[in-house]
Known about the structure:
alpha+beta
Amino acid sequence: MFARGSAGILVTPPIAALFMLYLGIWPLALVLILFWFILLMFFRDPERNIGSGIVSAADGVVDWVRTNDKWVIVSVFMNLHNVHVNRAPISGMTQKVTRKAGGMWPAFMERSERNAKAKMMFMTQIGMIRVEQISGVFAWRVCPYVRSGNGVKRGQRIGMIRFGSRVNVWLPADKVNCMVEPGQKTIAGITTIAEVK
């Protein structure tokens, strides 16, 4: 299975490669086929058995965890080889989805917080949570799948960052116990990042 909206992107390289073969331009055709295989890997969207508790919104590695009086924030950095479809950490109702233009700093840098992003607010059993999709250097587009008023279930697909790079999940600090630490690998919809107190 492939990510929503990827069909147009995935059919272009093989068509272009066939045209290059027709013209006898073998090296360029091989480059296009290689690029197509990379796209197939990037846009894959496998079915998953959803985990328990509050699950990771993204495949990748926990970059940092921050806690203050109000929030526990878990930031997951996605590499190019990760699945880039993001999933709902917990069931709830979409309250607000906003998109903001911004820079294209590498996602591993703190200033990437100023990059293009989408923010999704969900009302859940533990109160309001927020999921932020943040682009990186190679990101083409931040693509939320949900809109205000949409109900979501834990592990449901809620968006994708095309070639991009970081997802932050904001959870109410008084309602959860964080279960992950920096450097830990996560799988969207499966890895438990927090449990309800």
